[in-house]
Amino acid sequence: MARAVQNENSLLRKIERIRGRQLASGVILGIGDDAALFRPTSGREMVLTCDWFLEGTHFLSDKHPPASIGWKCLARAISDVAAMGGAPKCFLLSLALPNFRTSRWLDEFLRGLDRASRRFHCPLAGGDTTERNEILINITVVGEVRTGRALLRSGIRAGDIIYVSGRLGEAELGLRRLRQAKKIASIKSPLLRKHLYPEPRVRLGRWLAEKRLVTAMMDLSDGLSSDLPRLCEASRVGAVVHAAKLPSLPKTHLADISDSDALQLALHGGDDYELLFTVPPRKARRIPPLLDGLPLTAIGLITRDRRILISEGNGNTHALPAHGWDPFRKAAKKISI
Amino acid sequence: MARAVQNENSLLRKIERIRGRQLASGVILGIGDDAALFRPTSGREMVLTCDWFLEGTHFLSDKHPPASIGWKCLARAISDVAAMGGAPKCFLLSLALPNFRTSRWLDEFLRGLDRASRRFHCPLAGGDTTERNEILINITVVGEVRTGRALLRSGIRAGDIIYVSGRLGEAELGLRRLRQAKKIASIKSPLLRKHLYPEPRVRLGRWLAEKRLVTAMMDLSDGLSSDLPRLCEASRVGAVVHAAKLPSLPKTHLADISDSDALQLALHGGDDYELLFTVPPRKARRIPPLLDGLPLTAIGLITRDRRILISEGNGNTHALPAHGWDPFRKAAKKISI
Please, which residues have CB within 8 angstroms of residue B257's CB and are 6 or more apart in sequence? Predict the structure, then answer.
């Protein structure tokens, strides 16, 4: 039977089991010393990112399975590395939790974390633990990208075509379903899969960086209507998005919601971790409609005029309000998940 | 007048001001994109560490000046890099805080953080922010060390001499004084200085690594009686510490506490961020009693026998109980500070 830990060392021993194939990834010293040691690959720059994942703010411990919390905290941090065109190399885990969570909950959490770590070839290199009345998680991911090849948010030109990967709104729909549930969600529900187990688009990001097809890129974490303005702001441009082109949810998912709902989900739903990127028109023919089964869809155009517009057809074009997630905006939902 | 922020972007603009001299330190892309980019120096390994600094666990917002919280959250993470013999290169800040803290409190916090960042040549490279009912801080520091020269906890041999830098117990005494205070502590109190503004021993750590004088090293964050067993455990050795040799507090600090209290503070007091290291006897003459004004003191010997003993003179040698800080031990104090 799983037991609560007696001290910090025994907690570290539990965590240490998931270290994965460190050496292959450049980690030459992992958990157990004051810091980890990582040997960078020559000709590469390091991609550095960190991400909060907090009980009550980003997940609910009475609704989210611990394995999903473990998977998702790492997957969403890796998504930031994917968004630069980088490859994840290792991560640090900062974990604060109540003592009663150090037995079964922790084991399940570590199982999900370990699965994501193996799936994305991103071993655990180190971290910090402490006791706390709530579960607090912070993940740092270290990645690598060929020198000079990182894809930034800036660099867009007017006339570039805006693309997204995958489908938009699915994670938000999963969240709605989860909120209606009375207890911890089943891991196997296909409708919840994208909310519980998002897939950072590492392979796509690296492919786009290697092929030099892209002028700018970011990942969609807060929703298209909040993230697209950030991308445009970095390049001092605007955009027109064509509603009809958005890869919103397929009808099979939508028995109980309208087309207009599906559009709202695609525009404002968070947590999709798809990639949003811009491609010069002359390179657009080199973007396939599917890459390894993942749809890549042109959804609009970059404009010199710095407004962010949505065209709903019939000449009906209007400003796209940013209704995605912002933890500090007064009108923001209190809980992002 | 300082104002609370209206959204996450305006918070980021406040934080961005403290980025420091990024380029000189290898940071080629800082705040404002999905991740930061860092160009490693050739022939160096990366030192990676992260550290919690949480309201109520590591600091009290009604006692600790916000500038001290800013300084200390970075200084203690840098101390882990110093403990490997590395040089800090940049850091990531994860900050969660209530909206009412985003005006004056945040400005003061950032002032302290900025000072530490400049003092230790460790610019801000990126981070993550969110709103939360308590102040949560997590710091990741990226450092560098010449390939193969990092000083680990393992590598000690029986007969090695145990050294510590500085004085022990001063930070814990400062904490006692702070607890007695009725309000936010004055930044200028010399008795509180080491508790509020600890100085990671970066220069000493790098000097020891460059000169190859040391078999193992770590920093003292939880107290000698808790940290020395960890150092010994990593090398499967034991130790005898000589009480009389411990660099405890000078009499001037101790008007109201006894010699025995001073010994307890030196053995079990946390937060000193001094370096603990072991030196082979044949190299001991190359360790000066002072390095740039910082005392280096031999306090005991490494033994083959794996116990941790303290010798109080007159043949009175007994086991040294680990009474430092451990957040998960049942008998641990609820608050480490």
Answer: B173, B265
Task: Say whether A125 sits in a helix, a strand or coil.
Answer: strand
Enumerate the β-bridge partners of residue A308.
A239
8 Å CB contact of A136 and B136: yes
Chain B CB within 8 Å of residue A142 CB: yes
* DSSP-assigned letters across all residues of A100-117: GGTTHHHHHHHHHHHHHH
Query: What pLDDT digit, counting tens, does each position of A57-112 carry?
Result: 999 999 999 999 999 999 999 999 999 999 999 999 999 999 999 999 999 999 99
Going by C-alpha positions, the residue among B278, B240, B269 that lies closest to residue B337 is B269
Residue A300 CA from chain centroid, whole number: 22
Contact list in B for residue A234 (CB cut-off 8 A) is 32-33
For residues B274 and A236, give the distance between their C-alpha atoms in angstroms, rounded to a whole number.
48
Distance between CA atoms of residues A293 and B220, nearest Å:
52
Across the A/B interface, how many CB contacts are shorter than 8 Å? 211
Residue B209 near residue B85, CB atoms below 8 Å: yes
Q: Is B14 exposed, middle or buried (0-12, 13-18, 19+ CB in 10 A)?
A: middle
**Going edge to edge, which strands form the sheet with B36-38?**
A124-131, A87-97, A136-146, A44-54, B36-38, B27-29
Query: Among B304, B305, B277, which residue's Cα sits nearest to residue B291?
Result: B277
N residues, chain B: 337
Q: With contact defined as beta carbons under 8 Å apart, do A117 and A78 qualify?
A: no
Residue B133's pLDDT band, with cuts at 50, 70 and 90, is very high
One-letter amino acid for residue B117 of the chain: S
The HSE-up count of residue A155 (CA atoms within 13 Å, CB side) is: 18
Is residue A148 within 8 angstroms of chain B, CB to CB?
Answer: no
Rounded CA-CA distance A184/A174 in Å is 13
* DSSP assigned state of B286: G
- Residue A218 bridge partners (DSSP): A276
CB atoms within 10 A of CB A299: 22
Q: Does A118 touch chain B (CB under 8 A)?
A: no
Interchain contact, A28 vs B45, CB within 8 Å: yes
Contact (Cβ atoms closer than 8 angstroms) between residue B241 and residue B316: no
Q: Is B6 on the interface with A (CB under 8 A)?
A: yes
Chain B: give the shortest CA distance to residue A259, in Å.
31
Q: Which residues pair with B318 in a beta bridge?
A: B310
For residues B187 and A192, what is the distance between their CA atoms, to the nearest angstrom?
51
Whole-angstrom distance, CA of residue B138 vs CA of residue B93: 6
Select the residue from A33, A154, A218 to test the B interface by mutation, using most B Cβ atoms within 10 A.
Answer: A33
Q: How far is A278 from chain B (nearest CA, A)?
A: 15
Spatial distance between the Cα atoms of B32 and B49, rounded to a whole number of angstroms: 22
**Of residues B46, B51, B84, nearest to A40 (C-beta):** B46
CB contact under 8 A, A37 and B80: no
Is A181 at the interface with chain B, CB within 8 A?
no
B255-297 tens-digit pLDDT: 677 888 889 999 999 999 999 999 999 999 999 999 999 999 9
Q: Cα–Cα distance between A325 and A9 in angstroms, integer?
A: 38
The interface residues of chain B toward chain A in range 221-280, judged by CB-CB distance below 8 A, are 234
- State how far Cα B298 lies from the chain centre: 20
What contacts 24+ positions apart, CB below 8 Å, involve A333-336? A335/A56, A335/A57, A335/A60, A336/A57, A336/A58, A336/A270
CA proximity to A34, closest of B93, B134, B277 = B277
Report helix angle B170-180 to B259-268, nearest 10. 110
Q: Dmax over Cα atoms in chain B, in whole Å?
A: 67
* Percent residues over pLDDT 70 in chain A: 92
